[in-house]
Amino acid sequence: MAIPLQYNIRNLKLRKSATVMTALGIALTVTTAIFIMALLAGLNAAFHGSGDPLNVLVLRKGATAEMAAGGIDRDALPIMKDLPGVARDPQGQPLVSGEDLLVIVLPRNDGTGDANVTVRFMTPIGMEMRPEVKLVSGRWFTPGQREVVVSNSVHKRFSQASVGDQMWIGKGSWNVVGIFDSRGSAHDSEIWGDINQLAADFDRSTYSSVLIRATDPVSADALKNRVSDDQRLKLQGLLETEYWSKQTSSGAPIKFVGTIVAIIMAIGSCFAAMNTMYAAVAYRSREIATLRVIGFSRPSILTSFVFESVLLSLLGAIVGILLMLPFNGMTTGTSNPVTFSEAVFSLQMTPAVLGTAVLFALIMGLFGGIAPAWHAARREILASLRE
Amino acid sequence: MTLFSFMRKNAFRNKRRSLLTLLSIGFSLLLLTVMMTIWHAFYNDQGSAESAERLIVRHKVSLAQFLPISYRESIRSIPGVRNVVNETWFGGQYKDDKPENFFAQFGTDPNEIFDVQRDFHIPPDQLDAWKHDRAGCVVDAQLAQKHGWQIGDRINIKGTIFPFDLELTLRGIFTAPQNTETLYFNNTYFDEGYPRVKGLVGFFGVLADSPGSVPIIAKTIDTQFRNSDWPTKSESEKAFNLDWIAMMGNVKAFILSICAAVVFATLLVSANTMAMSIRERTREVALLKTLGFTRATVLGLFMSESITLAALGGLLGALAASGLIFLIAHSSAAAFLFTNMKASLPTILAAVGVGAAVGVVSSFVPAYNASRRNIVEGLRHIG
User: Fold this and answer.
1) What angle do CA B228, B232, B237 make, to 5 degrees?
2) What number of other Cβ atoms are within 10 A of residue A205's Cβ?
3) What span, in angstroms and rounded, lies between the C-alpha atoms of A52 and A130?
4) What is the mean pLDDT of chain A?
5) Distance (Å, rounded) from C-alpha B155 to C-alpha B149?
6) Alpha helices in chain A (DSSP H)
7) Which residues in chain A (323-352) have CB-CB distances under 8 A to chain B?
8) How far, in Å, CA of B338 to CA of B180, rounded?
9) Does residue A222 carry a pLDDT above 60?
10) Neighbours of A318 (CB within 10 A)
């Protein structure tokens, strides 16, 4: 027969200070783990959630990023527009967008110095191809004007990035006329402007990348191969979604340090939980013997104590989650190692992160509880009663 | 029995509890030591004396933007400048795109690079061989060892930023004070293979005649080029490295918050142990007081017990951390920022100090309460 759960809850309540201190210790470990996982989840969401599966991104052969030197000759654009399988907008324009990227320096809002931000120059066709990006205030840039729109994250993290501000890009200043939001995609780290205005500043004969919208997934695949195989073009095509997924490498240092930190803290907490549980067992040795005399079996005592430890760690997990909740959605940035510019992302406490955190705490409780519980179950009844 | 041995015996009276506490505190302070070491390496380490004499001049916007090679002679004519060398980040792939095969490749001028990087040493005959081979290269000794390269080996690097691959021959191996994970190749080869960058370079390394003239030189350079098409940002090598770290994100806040969590967790563990241990001994305390030990002695006894445990935990943690840091620094998965890390003696002492402080704070309240307890009540206590 199992010992009622109520017994464990009452015991935890009885030894309040020990329970609170152990649970808080576990909570701190859980908080750290959630913090690191939420960072990685946010970073993953920014990159994996970016791109449309129907879009094919074209880069110069051998390039791994849009920023690579020696891009795509402008003459290649008409060739791509005529490829079969290219979608057209209601006006009959082929959905092919030649784009140019530039990096500029903006001062951070929080006074931690400057950071590099990517500016994407394109025509209205390019904006049409990214319907997930919505305007939140102001208006879109007008073609033919020195105007830019900034993402919400850039607006929040940098000074000089509000509607009405001016920023220095290339060889002149540009007016900020609007703020957009792309719901956590990689475009949230960008500023957008008109490509023909940029051409006036720089004598650029190439595009950094070209984006092509296919009519359906099969044509997307075909287009990708056709671009890569075309001998005239010397280009490579890849699905936009694939491209952004590859960029997640910027999370590697966080992942490396974070995993070590979480594991070490977890081991420390495990020992602390073990200590508390051993004390609980020692404190209640007569009680345990009494339970045995009443007829509870060794396995049920073992289960009961493991359960108590798990309960303790669950309490810690809940406190840990509550401690981290205020930080959910906080935006931060890291450098994209390929473009040297800032990749903005937010802390995301996704259900998966929370689930993993709870599981993490359960494992700590299990490891911390099993030895003391084993010890409790193995005790000789008579010896314990005499203590 | 002296008070000291009494304290020592008590600290380990419950061996299992003491061991678990030691381990728990040890692991937490291990983490603290690692974090302090990273902090130290990033922010406190001033670098070598040679490094203090060097500046990096790059495009104001970013390293990804080029500067004209003509700047080299303009910079050279600035008073206080001894040597100037151009360097260009190639960022190619060796073998595959796995991070462990990644290392830095710079196109540079073989005639001057080792004059600027005075703390790098290369045998003169090898340097000479490199100077005479346009497709030659030199690598860091530790990098050569990692990949098993010998002089005369072919090293092929696939261009990703540039549409151009390097086919190099290893001509020399240099030693540096720290692992630099760097390969230098002749920039002329780059200019010829990819004419679009001809006359353009990534950044300049400048050697000043003394550390004191570094800020003045930096200012002179930036003022000189401020209104040109290629404005510059000049800073000391140390400041340049800090810029790299800042790019990873708010590293300072990250490290500090982890340290705070760790110290607080240690405090909880230690306080819990002491509370348990003192509660157990309520009757003993009463007995001690009956025998004539003062409150202060009792307080001191308990507190020194806790300090011993926590400081010992700190020492264990710090020693384990030194080992772990050594492993991280020498593992292939480590990013280049971690390769030069080493736990220093002050850091280890700091970890022990934090342990001792945690011992004081965590034991004061329970020890104070125990020392104040009424003797009769204490003797009656059943626990």
Assistant:
1) 165
2) 10
3) 8
4) 85
5) 9
6) 5-14, 16-48, 76-81, 124-128, 152-157, 195-201, 217-229, 240-246, 252-283, 285-294, 298-324, 351-378, 381-386
7) 332-335, 339-342
8) 11
9) yes
10) 15
pLDDT score at B382: 66
Query: Cβ contacts of residue A351 below 8 Å, gap of 6+?
Result: none
CB within 8 Å of B69: residues ≥ 6 apart: B86, B199, B200, B201
β-bridge pairing B136-140 and B232-236: unpaired
Angle between helices A285-294 and A252-283 (to 10 degrees): 70
Q: What are the average pLDDT values for consecutive 10-residue runs of chain B, which has 383 residues? A: 80 85 90 88 75 89 83 93 93 81 91 92 94 93 90 91 89 87 92 85 93 92 88 88 74 85 86 84 85 88 89 92 83 59 85 92 87 83 65
d(CA A118, CA A250): 15
Contacts of A254 in chain B (CB under 8 A): 249
- A264 contacts chain B (CB < 8 A): yes
Question: Residue A60: helix, strand or coil by DSSP?
Answer: strand
CA torsion through residues A75, A79, A80, A82, sign = positive
Tokens of A311: 């309960």
Model confidence band, residue A180 (pLDDT cutoffs 50, 70, 90): very high
Lowest mean pLDDT among A32-36, A173-177, B240-244: B240-244
- State the pLDDT at residue A105: 81
Q: Are residues B154 and B168 in contact, defined by beta-carbon separation less than 8 angstroms?
A: yes
Partners of A193 in the beta sheet? A121, A148
Candidates A61, A264, A309, partner chain B, best to mutate (most B CBs within 10 A): A264
Tell me whether A258 touches chain B (CB under 8 Å). Answer: no
- Comparing CB atoms, the residue among A29, A112, A267 nearest residue B250 is A112
Q: Looking at this predicted complex, what is its ipTM?
A: 0.74
Q: Are A325 and A337 in contact (CB under 8 A)?
A: no
